[in-house]
Amino acid sequence: MSTMRRHSKKRDAILSCIRRSHLHPSAEWIYTQLKPEHPDLSLGTVYRNLALFRESGEIVCVATVHGVERLDAVTEPHAHFICEQCDAVIDVDAPCDDLRQELEQQYGCTVQRSEMLFRGVCARCKNKDI
Fold first, then answer.
1. pLDDT (average), residues 36-44
2. Half-sphere exposure of 67 (CA within 13 A, CB side)
3. What does the pLDDT look like over 62-73, one tens digit per residue?
4. Sign for the pseudo-dihedral over CA of 113, 102, 63, 13
5. Residue 1 — very low, low, confident or very high, per pLDDT cuts 50/70/90?
6. Does residue 2 have a pLDDT over 60?
C-alpha cells in the first residue's frame, strides 16, 4: 500500500534548494538558506523532509564530512571528490558505468548500487599552499 505525501511549500522549498545547489549541502546549510523566506521553518522539519526524500529516492547522501551528511539530488551513479582541507564535495566525471559492467562481467555479480568517493586536496586549496 503506498502512502501519499502531503504537498507543502516548505517541503517543495527544501527539495528545490537541494536541486539548485551544486555544493552537496548539509541539512544545516539548507535550513540557513531557507530560514529568511520561511521564518517558521525548524531544523527538525528540514531533517524530517530529508528523510522522506531519501526514502523516496529523490536525494542521496553522498558522504559524511566531519560528522555532517552531505546530500545530492543527482541520484544517477557518479563519483565525488571530498577536499580534506575545505570540505568541498565535487562531482567527478568517472567511468562508473564502465567499472560496474566490468565488475559484473569479471565476477558474475549484479551491482545494485555503487558509490565512488575520492578524498584529497582540491585545486583551490592546493594552490593556496603554493
1. 98
2. 0
3. 999 999 999 999
4. negative
5. very low
6. no
Residue 92 has pLDDT above 70, yes or no: yes
For the record, the C-alpha cell of 127 comes out as 594552490
Instruction: State the cell numbers at 82.
Output: 571530498
Structural domains in the chain, sorted by start: 1-74 (1.10.10.10), 76-130 (3.30.1490.190)
Query: What b/e sequence results for 2-35 when a residue is b if at least 16 CB atoms lie within 10 Å of its CB, and e otherwise?
Result: eeeeeeeebbebbbebbeeeeebbbbebbbebbe
User: In whole angstroms, what is the distance from residue 97 CA to residue 78 CA?
Assistant: 9
- Joined grid coordinates for residue 40: 517558521
Residues in the chain: 130
DSSP 88: -
Cα(124)–Cα(41) distance, integer angstroms: 34
What is the 8-class DSSP label of residue 58?
A: S
Q: Are 43 and 28 in contact (CB under 8 A)?
A: yes
